[in-house]
């Protein structure tokens, strides 16, 4: 079977992730999860992707992305990042081989279902170090864009913000939002996830990650209830998404390059004209994750995490060869 055919079988939904920071572009690593503190936000990359994308597609509150392709959107966003003084490379990873010359949109051309969105912005209010200032604005600005340009309404959007007014972005609430989004989605729906906050790199406890690290998202209550590893996100959000759903994610945080481990990749670094398939992508563990989702639940996360080790190790080897580091 070709990579495309395997992807169709292993990952039911059409999943697209825009990320603003390769795994090698880091602000801080976590060497001891038990004593983990958020990194100093000075010079952080989080937030830059949202700004660059909105300056590309929604400048002056106009639909300036209407006539852009996916490729043009990402390349222009890279130029905006450079203008802001960031060296990070926007990237698009997908569950399908995407035609980058098609018009940019988070709503598929054949859309006939329901729009659903989860917007997460974490400023880590009161945390020292680690408090951020722009993540709430990221969420509100992105929400305005998807409402104005892609037909979403406030009733379609679930907000998780640590602002004292919305549902707090705790680990439990983020998990519930992921699970609800996946369980309510129906074929034909267009789902959207935006995360603006801290990401982190944590030790691979089994020692068989190529770089010795896993990637994770940091809920506001990370100190009490832990972080959300990449496998957790895959198992709760991506694996149970039904066939016929389109899920678009924007992960605006450090260490976001492989938060969603998907088989097709485009780097807006000027070296690619089209999306490339990872020829060694391991679909077997992904199939196990998808098929065992209903039975495994949260209790099965450790087993599923272990099953994904070999896949992610090969993935990082391929990324390293592709990126030249």
Automatic annotation (TrEMBL):
Signal peptide from the UniProt entry: none
Protein family membership: Belongs to the peptidase C14B family.
Pfam families: Peptidase_C14
Residue intervals passing through the bilayer: none
GO molecular function: cysteine-type endopeptidase activity
Protein name per Swiss-Prot or TrEMBL: Peptidase C14 caspase domain-containing protein
Annotated GO biological process: proteolysis
GO cellular component, one term: cytoplasm
Span of domain Peptidase C14 caspase: 115-265
